[in-house]
Amino acid sequence: MGLTQRRFSVFLLIFISGSLQAAPMLRLVTSVVGPVSAAAGTSPAAQTLEAYNAGDGSLTLTLTPDPTAPWLTAAVGAARACTTTTAATSCIPLTFSFQTASLATGMYTAAVTVAASSAVDSPQVVTVTVQVGGGVPNSVGQTQPLYVAPGGTASVSFSTNSYVNGRATTQSGGNWLSLTLEGSGSFRFVLPYQINLTPAANLAPGAYNGSLVTSGSTFAPDNKTIPVTMQVTTQPIAVPSASQISLVLAQGGPAMTYPFLPALSLSNNGQGTLAVQNISATGTGVSAYNYNNSGLGIVTVDPTGLAPGNYTGSVTITCNAVNCPISVPVSFQVVAQGAPYIYYQGAVNNATQLAGDTVCPGDWMALLGQQLSLDAYTAASTVPLPTQLADATVLVNGEAAPLYYTSYGQIAFQMPSDTALGTAQVQMQRSGQASNIVSVNVATRAPRIVVVTDDCATGCHLRNTTTPASPGDTIVLWAYGLGPTTPAVAAGAVPPANTVVTPTPLVNLGAGVGSLNLTPVFAGMTEIGLYQINVTIPSVGSPLGIVPVSLVFADTISNDIQILIQ
After folding, report:
1. Nearest residue to 417 via CA among 511, 347, 481
2. Does pTM top 0.85 for this prediction?
3. What is the pLDDT of residues 548-560, one digit of tens each?
4. Tell me, which fold does domain 150-232 have in CATH?
């Protein structure tokens, strides 16, 4: 099968849902602690996050720290009034303590598993990071060249636990150096900063020097002078689509490859034309090749014949960029076969791919996790879609759901049409072995327009930002989650001809005062779980240029997509 995929490629990213029985529901205020700064030779203060029960009954928690990270310990405290959330009144504090005095300068990350027996959405993983010596770099562009195109930009990110002031000076090349605060961070006291390099468009190729003085931090190691060297070039500058590949695979399980392991590619942050010459890999179980000499690296990580343990490798891309070859590290852990495991909030709407997003009955979903299937990728070949495929079954509130495909880390299924509204439970079984249970919110409709890449060579009338439409054209939109139809369609079944959405949504074209609400020529389900909306752009009065389009119901509105009208 080639890499070019048409409408059904949207099935490759799909998630899950169902209706909850009385049970505890584990919730964490955050799943990230840090980065916490520590001076070399010391240990930072302990950090606490709060957990609470969003369901019924009582919640008894256990913590399992990463055994390979002896610098971190974790403990469960007694229930108390919540201090960091208003979602509950009673919270359980989880305290993370550090023993970092013997660690060398650098960044260290470990995972702590939080579990609650018989609870929904358990277990969950908290990622804890400590920065020994602080997060402010000692230098930029000194040990590894930092390339920027004339008139372009490059940046280096770091975080602190205290505000810092930055004073930038340059010895050559003009005022190309600055420091900015990017926001308030993803956890209390974490402040993300960027060192920005912005050479003028007329700056000649060469090396330019500057320095950045940081001051005012309550953490002394953050206050320093940072030498900065910028390499200005008119050559291509290669940027890989991923900085690393990290996986957990089961012993004796299937290999991970495209499309579940995204293809590696390079983008050009410089000038000229970027050309990839070769893609190769090193390391046990790791292979890669240049797909049809297109510059796409198809990477495969195969645990066949490997004992449990940690393995490393790399993918190397050679090209004509000034910073090539590019090496992308690969690390993977092989674990013994066990029960299937669904990630927290691992039942998501296919169109949004957002954890915690609302879905509706009949939606296409993707279940994400590990060891969901120990067979190779298997796609359904019959309709109605089967509820058992290869070694896997997905249950929504105990009801078997239609399956589109199964694989090691992802299963595509359709939400049963009769799924009760509210919070639903999703669980799966692999060869009779049950997974953990996750929850998802289910509503009458959760409209999502999907962007489909298609050249319309066969007159499909689909439009996007690269395929312009004109006033008077009838265009086609594709969507999920539009809710009930007439006639009703059972999950997994092909919809009859002229199956229409009830009620009919309006198509909103444009934004602000000049936007239009248009009645579609047709709005219905044309394939399993997939809706088609045909709408005519007015010949007079239509907005022009890049125009947002959305679907409007009385009780909800879809996401926007962008189309080009000219």
Report:
1. 481
2. yes
3. 999 999 999 999 9
4. Immunoglobulin-like (2.60.40)
